[in-house]
Amino acid sequence: MIYSFLADLLVVFHLVFILYVIAGALLIFKWPKTFWLHLPSCFWGMTVEFTGWICPLTPWEIQLRRLAGEEGYTGSFIEQYLIPIIYPSGLNREIQMLLGSTVLIVNLSLYTLILIKRRNRKTPEDS
Question: Where do the structural domains in the chain lie, given as residue ranges?
Fold first, then answer.
């Protein structure tokens, strides 16, 4: 039972991490120092998608499920949990490239907004 709970907890963490990778730059508006945590997380997320790697959290979750006596699954976290929600078909290379590109575009846009906001804050106002 504990292994099943830990596997579920890991799924929640994995999902939160994915959301953080996609939109964590929004936190930088409030807490600028989170930049140093978000940027490597963002690069990791893009690397996993662009290279087709499987995130290490996925095999860990599968192992916990097997230790709980549950059936594990093959493929990635995205294939198992997110693709059935977002896409009707299975994960393929094109979808992975799309996901990686989405992370890149969303974060480039957010970081551009952050830089513009900072530049405007540092510029003396005309009186």
Answer: 2-122
